[in-house]
């Protein structure tokens, strides 16, 4: 039995060479990545673009690229995060930090050493998140809050982490690149 969750269906629709609306692809999402370090977190990269405004006639697969924790500084990406119940004591911190560095391709992500949670970080982005299954704990350096199914969060470049120790969950994220300088 595979440890990875079944990827969500991803349908891409655009305009074909004849100028007609057309289905470009329709399959289980082919871009699923484990968070590493023994984590049960899986990133499903749905689509990324590098600059805004986006050329909507470009039919290249926006998710066909190496995993990046944050979007391009002038772009955005859409991600579905799926997690099983996680035991934070089983995380290999050294491996998790190494993996974090490997996916910090845009340089917009930053780790914070914290005894509160193994993955305390921030991204210099504006993130819109929606809990679609279960609940997750949003961990801040000095407090935390439970996000339940249907709840929406707007993250503005702050240090945080997500705790999955209470059960399986799923969240959708749209992350928009930015800077705070």
From TrEMBL:
InterPro entries: OryJ/VirC-like, RmlC-like_jellyroll. PANTHER family: CUPIN TYPE-2 DOMAIN-CONTAINING PROTEIN, SLR2101 PROTEIN. This is Cupin domain-containing protein. It comes from PS1 clade bacterium. The lineage of its organism: Bacteria, Pseudomonadati, Pseudomonadota, Alphaproteobacteria, PS1 clade.
């Amino acid at each position: 039995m595979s440890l990875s969750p079944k990827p969500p269906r991803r349908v891409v629709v655009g305009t074909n060479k004849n100028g007609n609306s057309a289905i470009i692809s329709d399959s289980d999402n082919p871009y699923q990545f484990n968070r590493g370090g023994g984590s049960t977190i899986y990133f499903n990269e749905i689509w990324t673009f590098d600059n805004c405004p986006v050329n909507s006639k470009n039919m290249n697969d926006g998710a066909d690229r190496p995993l990046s924790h944050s979007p391009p500084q002038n772009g955005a990406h859409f991600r579905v995060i799926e997690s099983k119940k996680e035991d934070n004591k089983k995380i290999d911190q050294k491996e998790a930090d190494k993996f974090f560095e490997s996916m910090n391709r845009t340089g917009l992500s930053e780790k914070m050493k914290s005894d509160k949670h193994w993955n305390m970080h921030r991204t210099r982005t504006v993130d819109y998140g929606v809990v679609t299954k279960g609940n997750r704990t949003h961990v801040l350096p000095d407090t935390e809050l439970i996000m339940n199914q249907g709840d929406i969060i707007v993250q503005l470049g702050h240090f945080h982490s997500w705790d999955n120790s209470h059960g399986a969950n799923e969240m959708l994220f749209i992350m928009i690149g930015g800077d705070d300088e």
